[in-house]
Amino acid sequence: MTSAPEAILIAGPNGAGKTTFARQVLHVRYPAAHFLNADEIQREGPAFSHPVAAGRELVRRLDELTGQRETFAVETTLSSRRYVGKLRAWSGMGYRTSLHFIELPSADFAVQRVATRVAAGGHAVPEADVRRRFERGVQLLPVYKPLVDRWYHWFSDDRGLRLDDYQYT
């Protein structure tokens, strides 16, 4: 008997450290997971350099992976209900679902983290988008928690990343 594939959301506001978290945790906790990140897809070449093209490619890859019943992790700010229906569908397909949400102390902290990333050569995000996504992600977290088999609520600040709460349903 093969184990169920896993669908993992790595979520949090811009500047939360989602990509860093994925690079440090996925290969240990979810070694079979394919990591999908629109920002990284954008850097793959001119065909995906526009955010819309990268987003479409992410969706295409996501559909391909679910069609093959592969384990995957996808990065999101969780600032919309985009994954509500997808989580329900994945569960219906036999996927085990997990949410790792990385919270920051404030929208100001998120803006500063993005500015620090840009100063180090990373990608920029308009401040208004950072603030909007921060608020929406915090508002939508309670919507997403009941939809997954396991959720992990992480907190990140100047003292580092730590697990704040978790639940297996």
Structural write-up:
- With 169 residues, the protein is of the alpha/beta class.
- It has a single domain (6-33, 73-168), classed as 3-Layer(aba) Sandwich (Rossmann fold).
- The chain contains 6 helices and 6 strands, in the order βαβααβαβααββ.
- The protein has a 6-stranded mixed β-sheet, with helices on both faces.
- α5 (107-119) packs across α6.
- The protein starts with 5 loop residues before the first strand and ends with a strand.
Structure, briefly:
With 169 residues, the chain is an alpha/beta fold. Helices cover 45% and strands 23% of the residues.
Fill in the keyword field for this structure.
alpha/beta, Rossmann fold, 6 helices, 6 strands
The major sheet is characterized as:
6 strands, mixed
Rg, nearest Å: 16 Å
Following the backbone from N to C, one meets helices and strands in this order, namely: EHEHHEHEHHEE
CATH class: Alpha Beta
- Number of discrete helical segments: 6
Low-confidence stretches: none
Q: What strand line-up does the widest sheet have?
A: 2-3-1-4-5-6
- Let me know the CATH homologous superfamily: P-loop containing nucleotide triphosphate hydrolases
- The average pLDDT score comes to 95
Number of strands: 6
